[in-house]
């Protein structure tokens, strides 16, 4: 069944467009159809054929289904560029939606939903209403999806016309495919709305579980995925669901299997009977293993998910490690993931076999894979203390092969093994030293130098070895320089003889005078002072016993793990990141109360008098008569005074005044009392006087006194960390406390795409550690220094390439007064630069700046009193743009 | 939890868009093309990348390759990755059903049908319908066959979405092939590191009407549940996967395999058996490198199954260094040849009865000069291919296949068994 459509791609000598126009208006049906095909062919290869719009639309009224489909396809593509002409098609659409042939009815409503032109959308409502109640299930299933399309274009219209109710009715439809599509549509609408729209009750649950048995494989995936949001009421309810879902594990479609696994894992949390849980684990293992016989792309997704599953429930696959052994022909991305899982499943029982495998992989061709295999051996050594010796002997065998990158990788992991098992395996140092000359990678070099420094007393010629590195000190990368500096100090402290003394002087000189790396210089100064004032103290510091390390490099935080497991099979589980970390879509209707908080907070605080930011006198308490009591903010960042008291450095960060009871607008709840076993935490990032605070309040709903509150922040995009300890007095039952925690910017910046997520851990002496995530808004980071001069703004705007310009519409924002808006924005450190009028629109130019000196150049276009504002922004750091748009939304409301 | 893709692209081998379907208007073809061509440029080899890639603009791309075509989706939501990637494979199957082969040429030749199919297979980024056989009932390649009053086949929305009503055959027949692939991995110490058997019941049905089928296997769980003394061998299958036509809830209840089959060929079920299997064909190779000038192989192959069975089309691929020349090969059975394009020597034996051992000796010349810093040789394993008809490793047996249709016709079931090598690898010392 092969076609010959390629002939439509060929062009003629005569002007193409006029010729097509002529053919489109031909009186012969076949000629018209051929012409439309040619138009579509041209469209496919990217030629602009929008000028033929009227002629193509004229062919729309046809009995020929194929021709109709082609014209519809054309319309989807070009209606946006010709919105006025697109109206011409509306009549035919409406007529087609009542055609006796269900294929045409469905086609009409499906296509209308794809045309994202407001004028057309208005006319879509009536046909859609009819089609949702159509006799033919094929039309109903298409209409169900169409509601989601309409919601994407105009959410209000969908709600006003009662389509949501109609969609909910379809969940009770007698046709399983209609149910499945209705579920998909509702789930998507729910995703973009903060109001509860699609809630699964026990009644809908029954309907969905019934439809699950009958609908197509894709429909089964929709239903299973939506079920993952259902919270079972009790263990019985959970068992019941699991019982209905378990047969899906036998489905040939891997996506159905993975989604079923997701539901079972989620419901297992509620099941109390250990027998049932054990039995379920046993049932899930074979289907998970079988996923590894699927296509490599599916295997990859499965492996990323299995990685999560074994972290949560290691028993499921404890005996299946062999299936993760790499096959020769596995694509490299599959091999890498298999390796990760092998490390996780390695145990004393199987380590011998695993080591044989790793050794085999370490001699393969792909360098990244080889390195990972070598590293895997080291991680097993750290994880399994009884196998450490065997791991090391494998590493030594590999070193003897003398393949350069294998040797270097091995040295890096051996350093970690030394740290894990101090004073155990030093006998191999001599072997390591043989490879000294071949090290050319910074990490390997640094590791080797660390080993020499750490064991300087046992290596006879440690000084010679270090000296050989010192010659090239100025050219080394920072990592190696830092390690060299520390190792030389260690050597000197261990063997304070003449040679090392000369070396240390050379190094300190190099590291303080000849370098412009502040880290290196600071560390060198600290050593210098220590050594010159109190060598014994230096020993205590530099040669102090190190905490033992463990292999947790790939363990996810438990709350994150649970979130990811609820997202099994989705992109979130592939990336091992929560969905909000990579999804740029902002919710269509943000919660109204959220905005109130933001606004009130901003307005309330901007009134308060400025506080001297004075890190030198941190102990002076706040005596100012501000209307809102505040703690003395700490210095924005620790800037140690090198000549001052080094040991006193720590104190500079700690505000020691008494915590003061704070009042103010209520904060958003970040840890509900149901999760916190009675403790409720509300918090929000705020900015006051150029300083960022974490405004946090605790409500003790437990029966006992809570005390000893401590807080910690996970690595985040801006490196935000607590600037001091949390000051909370012991909380009586029923009492609450609120405090402002000063925040500082540390170097501890999380890599990856920026997000405004703040992961926080809070603990007290009575309860377990609580983890929660708080989504801050970027606007608290807008600095006071964000104002730009007119000229520099212009220059900056011009110098940035067009690729760096982004724009966003805020359809719901109304600007009632330009001046009030400017004032409002200035209060949030978005500074006004200039304005101009363009027809009835006002165009404002503004600037803002976030930490690390990242500027935003803003052009805000709106008409006073008319809903809808457009915000265009240019910035050198594109990755912050989604966050920026999110932050602007409440500000221009 | 929900998510859909924004657009679906069919790209040529260089990453240029051939055909695309925009579902949500938030990812453009230019954007996708720019991203993907850049990706290909970086490595030149799509295999180096995981099939799920994130770009900085908040878009996730997922792709698979088939011949000289990439199928790519772009998404801004947290969509179901397994479902989407599997869907892309199904799209390939549908196109293959329509155009025999999916490649750049066939896409160009049929772009009208391609658009029509995409429209039916995915709506607003949600997978909808991928049963090629049923699709071809209402989307035809030859446009003139299309009648105006065409309706969507009932099957598209029916509970039985894989079979249309009103199918008629003069002679009602079912062919059932039980195919078992043996996967094995032997490490350089001669230990079996991993072995499993993946079986498939491949069915071809030529049956009229809506036949109800019931399949009986020598399934240990079922036979024990029925309290039957197991005559002969009953087998324990690790994991069974069924075609969507099989009623899963019924199987879960009483292990009955009941279904209304699709028309034509399909995989009724697949199963896996992870018990240790004795390698059916054992291969040993002794390699001797002589003074950098020549290399000698002595390969022994032994069949370790019963004498009444015979392996056919045996092919043993032994890796040789990529710079080897002047092959000199002798075999005690079959023929062997140097295949420089695969860096291997390939030894073929047409017929290899059970309990036999054959030999092959080979000698190659090597260049006497080698690079100063030798890159490690790619260490390929010995790979073996074979087929053994009328034999299964698992001992699976079809006890009965009952076919009941309301018109009451008699249908003939034909059953065949075959075992073949899957990923059958023995690592060299």
From TrEMBL, chain A:
Chief place of localization: membrane
Alphabetically ordered keywords of this record: Cytoplasmic vesicle, Golgi apparatus, Membrane, Protein transport, Transport
Region described as Disordered: 601-641
Annotated ranges, domain Clathrin adaptor alpha/beta/gamma-adaptin appendage Ig-like subdomain: 659-773
Domain of life: Eukaryota
GO CC annotation, single: Golgi apparatus
Membrane topology of the entry: Peripheral membrane protein
Beta-adaptin appendage C-terminal subdomain domain segment(s): 782-893
Parts forming coiled coils: none
Residue spans crossing the bilayer: none
Feature: compositional bias, Low complexity: 617-626
Pfam families: Adaptin_N, Alpha_adaptinC2, B2-adapt-app_C
GO molecular function: clathrin binding
GO biological process: intracellular protein transport; vesicle-mediated transport
Subcellular location: Cytoplasmic vesicle, Clathrin-coated vesicle membrane; Golgi apparatus, trans-Golgi network
Quaternary state and interactors: Adaptor protein complexes are heterotetramers composed of two large adaptins (beta-type subunit and alpha-type or delta-type or epsilon-type or gamma-type subunit), a medium adaptin (mu-type subunit) and a small adaptin (sigma-type subunit).
Role, per record: Subunit of clathrin-associated adaptor protein complex that plays a role in protein sorting in the late-Golgi/trans-Golgi network (TGN) and/or endosomes. The AP complexes mediate both the recruitment of clathrin to membranes and the recognition of sorting signals within the cytosolic tails of transmembrane cargo molecules.
Family: Belongs to the adaptor complexes large subunit family.
Name this polypeptide is given: Beta-adaptin-like protein
TrEMBL record, chain B:
GO terms classed as biological process: intracellular protein transport; vesicle-mediated transport
UniProt keyword Membrane, yes or no: yes
InterPro entries per UniProt: Adaptor_comp_med_subunit, AP2_Mu_C_sf, AP_mu_sigma_su, Clathrin_mu, Clathrin_mu_CS, Longin-like_dom_sf, MHD
Domain of life: Eukaryota
Localization per record: Cytoplasmic vesicle, Clathrin-coated vesicle membrane
Principal location listed in the UniProt entry: membrane
Gene Ontology cellular component annotations, sorted alphabetically: clathrin adaptor complex; clathrin-coated vesicle membrane
PROSITE patterns according to UniProt: CLAT_ADAPTOR_M_1 (PS00990), CLAT_ADAPTOR_M_2 (PS00991), MHD (PS51072)
Ranges for domain MHD: 171-427
Keywords per UniProt: Cytoplasmic vesicle, Membrane, Protein transport, Transport
A matching Pfam family: Adap_comp_sub
Record keyword Iron present: no
Quaternary structure (record): Adaptor protein complex 1 (AP-1) is a heterotetramer composed of two large adaptins (gamma-type subunit and beta-type subunit), a medium adaptin (mu-type subunit) and a small adaptin (sigma-type subunit).
PANTHER family: AP COMPLEX SUBUNIT MU (PTHR10529)
Recorded family membership: Belongs to the adaptor complexes medium subunit family.
Protein name: MHD domain-containing protein
Originating organism: Lolium multiflorum (Italian ryegrass)
Species classification: Eukaryota, Viridiplantae, Streptophyta, Embryophyta, Tracheophyta
């Amino acid at each position: 069944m092969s076609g010959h459509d390629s002939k439509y791609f060929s062009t003629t000598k005569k002007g193409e467009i006029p010729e097509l126009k002529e053919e489109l208006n031909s009186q012969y049906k076949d000629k018209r159809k051929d012409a439309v095909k040619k138009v579509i062919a041209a469209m496919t290869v990217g030629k602009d054929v929008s000028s033929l719009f009227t002629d193509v639309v004229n062919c729309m009224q046809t009995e020929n289904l194929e021709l109709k489909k082609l014209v519809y396809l054309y319309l989807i593509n070009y209606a946006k560029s010709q919105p006025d002409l697109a109206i011409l098609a509306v009549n035919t659409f409406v007529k087609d939606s009542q055609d006796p042939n269900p294929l045409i009815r469905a086609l009409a409503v499906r296509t209308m939903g794809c045309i994202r032109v407001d004028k057309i959308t208005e006319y879509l409502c009536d046909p859609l209403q009819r089609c949702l109640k159509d006799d033919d299930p094929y039309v109903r299933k298409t209409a169900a999806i169409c509601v989601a399309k309409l919601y994407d274009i105009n959410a209000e219209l969908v709600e006003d016309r009662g389509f949501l109710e109609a969609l909910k009715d379809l969940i009770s439809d007698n046709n399983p495919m209609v149910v499945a599509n209705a579920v998909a549509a509702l789930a998507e609408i729910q995703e973009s709305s903060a109001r509860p729209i699609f809630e699964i009750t026990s009644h809908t649950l029954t309907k969905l579980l019934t439809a699950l048995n009958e609908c197509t494989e894709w429909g089964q995936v929709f239903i299973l995925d939506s079920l993952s949001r259902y919270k079972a009421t009790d263990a019985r309810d959970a068992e019941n669901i699991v019982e209905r879902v378990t047969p899906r594990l036998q489905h040939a479609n891997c996506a159905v299997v993975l989604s079923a696994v997701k539901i079972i894992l989620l419901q297992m949390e509620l099941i109390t009977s250990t027998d049932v849980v054990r039995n379920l684990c046993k049932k899930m293992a074979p289907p998970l293993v079988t996923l590894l016989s699927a296509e490599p792309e599916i295997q990859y997704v499965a492996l990323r998910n299995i990685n999560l599953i074994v972290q949560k429930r290691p028993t499921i696959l404890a005996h299946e490690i062999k299936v993760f052994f790499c096959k020769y022909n596995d694509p490299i991305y599959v091999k890498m993931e298999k390796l990760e899982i092998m490390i996780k499943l390695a145990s004393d029982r199987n380590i011998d076999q695993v080591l044989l495998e790793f050794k085999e992989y370490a001699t393969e061709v792909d360098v990244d894979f080889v390195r990972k295999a070598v590293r895997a051996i080291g991680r097993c050594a750290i994880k399994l203390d009884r196998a450490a010796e065997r791991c090391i002997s494998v590493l030594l065998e590999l070193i003897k092969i003398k393949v350069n990158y294998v040797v270097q990788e091995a040295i890096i992991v051996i350093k970690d093994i030394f740290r894990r098992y101090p004073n155990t395996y030093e006998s191999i140092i001599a072997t390591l030293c043989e490879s000294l000359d071949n090290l050319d990678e910074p990490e390997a070099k640094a590791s080797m130098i660390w080993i020499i420094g750490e064991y300087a007393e046992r290596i006879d010629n440690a000084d010679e070895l270090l000296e050989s590195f010192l010659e090239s000190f100025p050219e080394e990368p920072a990592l190696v320089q830092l390690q060299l500096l520390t190792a030389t100090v260690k050597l000197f402290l261990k063997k304070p003889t003449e040679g090392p003394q000369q070396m240390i002087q050379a190094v300190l000189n190099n590291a303080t005078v000849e370098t412009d790396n502040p880290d290196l210089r600071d560390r060198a100064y600290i050593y210098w002072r220590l050594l010159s004032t109190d060598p014994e103290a230096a020993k205590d510091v530099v040669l102090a016993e190190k905490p033992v390390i463990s292999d947790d490099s790939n363990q996810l935080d438990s709350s994150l793990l649970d979130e990811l497991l609820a997202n099994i099979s989705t992109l979130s589980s592939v990336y091992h990141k929560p969905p909000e970390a990579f999804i740029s879509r902002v919710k269509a209707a943000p919660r109204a109360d959220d905005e109130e908080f933001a606004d009130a907070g901003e307005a309330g605080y901007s009134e308060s008098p400025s506080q001297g930011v004075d890190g030198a006198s941190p102990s002076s308490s706040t005596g100012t008569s501000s209307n809102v009591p505040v703690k003395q903010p700490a210095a924005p960042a620790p800037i140690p005074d090198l000549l001052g008291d080094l040991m006193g450095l720590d104190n500079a960060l700690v505000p020691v005044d008494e915590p003061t009871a704070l009042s103010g607008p209520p904060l958003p709840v970040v840890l509900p009392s149901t999760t916190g076993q009675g403790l409720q935490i509300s918090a929000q990032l705020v900015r006051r006087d150029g300083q960022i605070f974490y405004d946090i309040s605790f409500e003790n709903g437990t029966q006992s006194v809570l005390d000893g509150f401590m807080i910690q922040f996970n690595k985040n995009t801006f490196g935000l960390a607590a600037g001091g300890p949390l000051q909370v007095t012991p909380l009586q039952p029923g009492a609450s406390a609120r405090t402002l925690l000063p925040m500082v910017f540390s170097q501890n910046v999380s890599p990856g795409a920026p997000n405004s997520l703040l992961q926080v851990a809070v603990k007290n002496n009575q309860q377990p550690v609580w983890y929660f995530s708080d989504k801050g808004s970027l606007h608290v980071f807008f600095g006071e220094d964000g104002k730009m001069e007119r000229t520099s703004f212009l220059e900056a705007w011009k110098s940035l390439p067009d690729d760096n310009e982004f724009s966003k519409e805020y359809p719901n924002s109304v600007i009632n007064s330009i001046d009030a808006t400017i004032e409002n924005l200035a209060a949030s450190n978005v500074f006004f630069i200039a304005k101009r009028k363009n027809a009835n629109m006002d165009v404002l130019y503004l600037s803002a700046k976030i930490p690390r000196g990242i500027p935003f150049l803003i052009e805000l276009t709106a008409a006073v009193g008319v809903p809808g504002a457009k915000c265009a922004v240019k910035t050198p750091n594109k990755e912050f743009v989604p966050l920026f748009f999110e932050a602007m939304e409440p500000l221009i409301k | 939890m929900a998510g859909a893709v924004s657009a679906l692209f069919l790209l040529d081998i260089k990453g240029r868009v051939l055909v695309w379907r925009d579902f949500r208007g938030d990812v453009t073809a230019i954007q996708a093309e720019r991203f993907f061509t850049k990706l290909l440029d970086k490595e030149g080899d799509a295999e180096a990348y995981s099939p799920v890639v994130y770009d900085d603009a908040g878009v996730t791309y997922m792709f698979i390759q088939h011949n000289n075509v990439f199928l790519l989706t772009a998404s801004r939501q947290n969509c179901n990755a397994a479902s989407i990637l599997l869907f892309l494979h199904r799209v390939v199957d549908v196109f293959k059903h329509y155009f025999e082969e999916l490649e750049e040429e066939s896409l160009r030749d049929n772009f009208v049908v391609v658009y029509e199919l995409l429209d039916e297979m995915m709506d607003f980024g949600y997978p909808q319908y991928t049963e090629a056989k049923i699709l071809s009932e209402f989307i035809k390649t030859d446009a003139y066959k299309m009648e105006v009053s065409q309706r969507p086949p009932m099957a598209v929305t029916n509970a039985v979405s894989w079979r249309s009503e009103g199918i008629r055959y003069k002679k009602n027949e079912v062919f059932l092939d039980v195919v078992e692939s043996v996967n094995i991995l032997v490490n350089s110490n001669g230990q079996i590191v991993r072995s499993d058997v993946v079986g498939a019941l491949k069915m071809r049905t030529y049956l009229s009407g809506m036949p109800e089928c019931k399949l009986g296997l020598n399934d240990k769980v079922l036979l024990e549940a029925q309290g039957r003394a197991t005559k002969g061998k009953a087998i324990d299958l690790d994991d069974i996967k069924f075609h969507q036509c099989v009623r899963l809830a019924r199987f879960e209840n009483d292990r009955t395999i009941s279904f209304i089959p699709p028309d034509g060929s399909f995989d009724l079920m697949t199963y896996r058996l992870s018990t240790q299997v004795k390698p059916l064909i054992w291969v040993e190779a002794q390699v001797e490198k002589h003074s950098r000038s020549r290399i000698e192989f002595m390969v022994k192959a032994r069949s370790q199954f019963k004498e009444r069975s015979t392996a056919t089309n045996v092919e043993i691929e032994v890796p040789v260094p990529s710079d080897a020349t002047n092959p000199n090969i002798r075999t005690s059975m079959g023929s062997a040849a140097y295949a420089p394009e695969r860096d291997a020597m390939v030894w073929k034996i047409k017929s290899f009865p059970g309990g036999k051992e054959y030999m092959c000796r080979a000698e190659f010349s090597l260049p006497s000069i080698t690079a100063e810093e030798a890159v490690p040789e790619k260490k390929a394993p010995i790979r073996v291919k074979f087929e053994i008809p009328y034999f299964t490793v698992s001992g699976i047996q079809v006890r009965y296949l009952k076919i009941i249709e309301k018109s009451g016709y008699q249908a003939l079931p034909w059953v065949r068994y075959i075992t073949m090598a899957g990923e059958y690898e023995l690592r060299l010392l």
